[in-house]
Amino acid sequence: MATHAGKEGVVYIGANQIAEVVDWSIDHTMSPIDDSNLSDTDDTHLAGTQNWSGSITCHWDETDTNGQGAMTIGASVTLNLYPEGNASSDVYFTGTASITSIGRNASRQATVQATYGFTGNGALTQATVA
What we know:
- A hairpin with a 7-residue loop joins strand 8 and strand 9 (113-120).
- By secondary structure, the chain is an all-beta fold.
- It has one domain (6-26, 47-128).
- Strands 1, 2, 3, 6, 7, 8, 9 and 10 form an eight-stranded antiparallel beta sheet that branches.
- It has no helices and ten strands.
- It is globular.
């Protein structure tokens, strides 16, 4: 059984690595379709469509024009999320996503951070680095 340290993770938009990533998350879900009828004593369902969404938090870097700068509200980007790094045979998740939110936070005792929310547009694929 393999485990990995979070510090191995990286995130790319297409071929461009996003600078200063602090953390990222994705949620991959399925929307069930209820097919219960009046006489059922328990709910039943059919598998419906899948969807995915998540967020990327970074130390804000306004000079990262091909990474953080590419994530503007409404932008469609190809995300490549690597939980264990991007070396040969490492697993990663990839798909096209729309940037749905941007939050920024400044605190006296911390760096300025930016959090980018996204929603998948199509399938989320698990792949292996060649």
